[in-house]
């Protein structure tokens, strides 16, 4: 690996949480989001020679992401939930400003998830990692769809409280 690729990889690794937050705010489908994020990573590495190291890397990487999201949106014009260019521009400015605080919260989410009991962890995984709807989850875990939805709400509440508690502890 040459030195330029090594530097690009280092910078990307640090910027990836903020870029991921930007892409996630624009691309709601999990599979599409992962594809767009992968395209962004490739574009960042390929266009790293155009990056000016005197400027902050995260806003530059979000600019690359903005272009990739724009390509994705143009291909998805027929969808009802598509942001316009102005909304994308506003988020591209806002995400780098809040990214450092929010990146810490992502770590807390991981910690809080590890504290869930196995059944709750399984429901969370089916919903948010496998992107299954409550009705499909219900069939798989032998519960009613309504029970699954309520359980997921309780899990989200527990995770929110846990993340807020850890955030307060970290700032104290």
TrEMBL record:
Similarity section: Belongs to the sigma-70 factor family. ECF subfamily.
Keyword line: Sigma factor, Transcription, Transcription regulation
Ranges that cross the membrane: none
Biological source species: Neorhodopirellula lusitana
Domain RNA polymerase sigma factor 70 region 4 type: residue ranges: 110-159
Domain of life: Bacteria
Domain RNA polymerase sigma-70 region: 16-77
Protein name: RNA polymerase sigma-70 factor, ECF subfamily
